[in-house]
Amino acid sequence: MGTFGQRLLLLWTLTVAGLAFAACGSNSNTSVFQPDASTDGGPGGPFSDVVTFGDGPSFGDGGVGSLAISPQNPTLTVTNGAAPTQAFTTTLTLNGAAQTVTSSWTLADYTVGTMTGTGTFTPQGTIAGTATVIATYGGVTATTTVTVTVSLSAQLGTVTLPDGTTIPQSSTGISGPDMTALQGSPTGGDAGTPTTIIYPYDQTVFPLGLLAPVAQFSAGSVAPVDFKISLDTTGFHWDGYGHVGNPAQLQAAIPQAMWNGALASAQPTPSSKNAVVVLSIVKAAAGVAYGPAQAHLIIAPGQLTGVIYYESYSGDTLPDGGSDFGLWAVKPGQTQPPSHLEPGCVICHGVAASGNTITMGTDEDEYGPLTGVFRIETDGGYTQLATAPTNLPYDIAGGIDSRGLGWGTVSPDGKVVLRGLNQFWGGDTLLAWAVPDSPLGGDAGPAPLSTTMTVNGDLNLFVPEYSVDGNHLVYVNATNAGVSGTPSQSIGILDIATTLGDGGAGGFGSVSLSNPQTIYDSTGTGAGSGAQAFTKVPTFLPDSKSIVFEETHSTAQAADGYNNMLPDYIDEVNYVDGALAMLQPASGGGYTRVALTNANTGSLASFATQNYEPKPLPVPVGGYYWVVFASFRTDAYPTLATPKKLWVTAISPGAAPGTDASHPPFTLVNQAIVAPQQSQRAYWALAPCQGMGAGCQTDDDCCAGGCLPQTPGNPTSPLVCGTPSTGCVQNGGRCVAGQSQTCCNAAAGVQCIGTLNGYGTCNAPGAAQ
Q1: Who has the most CB within 10 Å: 287, 325, 327, 713?
Q2: Which of 204, 74, 69 is nearest to 130 (CA)?
Q3: pLDDT tens for residues 172-231?
């Protein structure tokens, strides 16, 4: 390059760094052009025409080039018969001259489709939405959007659920007249009693990532012979055509890909803060279509995390010939079936919120050595650290129902276990142990738990549970001198402080209980509809302030011999009533009780008092808290006379005291291997968190940062725990407790909510009601 060419290039560089760039804006389709290294600036080149000098050099029209993408903002529609693609090109305009250039291409988000490096966009196929297309030429970028709409239909086939239940719905049985009617607009009307959707419930909040629900609907005045089930949301429509295989059990199974596509497509609208999927069912008989029956489902933008540990007492035969009796675990945010952790009477468990420690108990000597305290490993395995302490026998003797470490109260960090001396639900001397770092007993086998800690504060507590931040206990009041609160019918909270020792002269440490306060008494004035209820299994929500619990009014339980603490039955045959309720912190201090009517209510009035043992996920997801509970409702389980299954309700944070913050619940399709299997006593904990570089599914799997593609810029690469390139933590990711400024959009109100082992979750403090 000659001297003049060198001077031009230098002047261009100065312009880029200085005034010419400062004066140039850009929009979605243009950008200031920066030359690449191949430009020589010689005669005829784009920079040879120097026309002005002054405050800075100007080249041609000012040295400003524009890059434009063509076509602009196209829309593609995915249908059954078409899988459209879109090729993009770029044009560079400089000094009034335009030429087609070869750019490199990416997408800002790969949810709705993929992009080749040469500019061809391909829709994902089942997800509607808008993607931002980014073209780069040299140092220049330009953007446009591509919008994908989806309109699909399918002929449904018979489906078998994870528990072996068969949904006979094959479309091969649909008559020609019924198909014609279903493909048109409904013209019939049920005389008096229209078909309704029994499950899923209208206004249910669903997270992402669940197995698709099986819709259950009523017959109405005209018995359905054939049906069409549809999903509609932002830019997405799907129809599934099926034939009623069992008129006594009207159900419709949704293909998983269509369920996932509808939920991923749903977006809030200008008139609503909620993303909504409308589920519709149109029935047909004798060539006439009736309907539609509809349910509006609210979609939370997050995938549930953690593990639910629960028990089964039913003793049903499994496919391998064994029994379902024992301890189970299921991951609600994934589609795998549950794991049978321990068969037999190894039950009545307690779990650390962080998911690293679990305790088990039994009332049978033969299973005693299999119980105690366990470390949950990061690969999902379990290491037995100790059997039950010698002062907690396995069997029931002398009127003392102990059951080892069953119902153990484990600190959120998994380092301390609390337990009443006499009865497993507590109410007498509270004991504490430090969780050992390695198995006691060495090669000789697990030894009894002997790492006893000192307990300061002589208080008797029924079923105590830690707050997620580890600073408080909530409990049902037992008899305590100088402490108000009717035993078994009131709830209290207190402060707890822990000091751990190494087992030397100072022992294994101590826990100190202080500042006990009764915050609700069902026998007092102002108890509302919870008056005279037995209060059971209270548990903190992730904010470590709000409390969910169970209320029972059954007078028969007053003489059950268990201090009214058994959540669901009197004598393992006769069940009591149960309803979920909540204590909300009031602005002026104190707590306000509110019934969780939305969570309790099902298709029959009796279902409102058949809900037991609420246990929350210890972190918020998608702007909501999530609570698992057991219920006998047959909604979603018409083949079973009295199913006892796990259900999940979403609770909106920040609701005004006295407002029901719960939402209609959904059930977990993957909680059983055989249909009759009964689920109860669920504890929801995180899986042990993973370090940087470890595989993950969601942000909550990671001890810090977020769950990101292993290869930056390649969204299809495996997900691993890493640090976001934005330098801030996205919604749903882990943050350091008290440091909301590390969250993206902190200025807009996003906060680091909840604490668990020093970490919280970036999320908005409230969600749509």
Answers
A1: 327
A2: 74
A3: 999 999 999 999 999 888 878 999 999 999 999 999 999 999 999 999 999 999 999 999
Per-residue pLDDT band for 747 (boundaries 50, 70, 90) equals confident
- Within 8 A by CB and 6+ apart from 53, the residues are none
Instruction: Catalogue the E-assigned strands of 168-287.
Output: 197-199, 205-208, 214-217, 226-233, 236-243, 251-253, 275-285
CB 102 within 8 A of CB 92: no
Nearest to 198 by CA among 575, 725, 601, 602: 602
H or E stretch at 257: helix 256-265
Residue 713: how many other CB atoms lie within 10 Å: 8
Listed in sequence order, the residues at least 6 apart from 659 whose beta carbon sits closer than 8 Å to its beta carbon are: 584, 594, 769
Strands 507-521 and 452-456 come out as parallel
Neighbour-count burial of 659, counting CB atoms closer than 10 A to its CB (0-12 exposed, 13-18 middle, 19+ buried)? middle
Phi-psi region of 541 (alpha: psi -120 to 50; beta: other; left: phi over 0): beta
| Cα–Cα distance for residue pair 522/532, rounded to 1 Å | 5
Task: Report the DSSP beta bridge partners of residue 372.
Answer: 360
Residue 734 φ/ψ, nearest 5 degrees: -75, 145
DSSP 186: -
Give Dmax over CA atoms of the chain in angstroms.
Answer: 105
Question: Do β-strands 140-155 and 75-79 pair in parallel, antiparallel, or remain unpaired?
Answer: parallel
Instruction: Report the C-alpha gap between 590 and 586 in whole angstroms.
Output: 6
Confidence bin at 31 (pLDDT 50/70/90):
very low
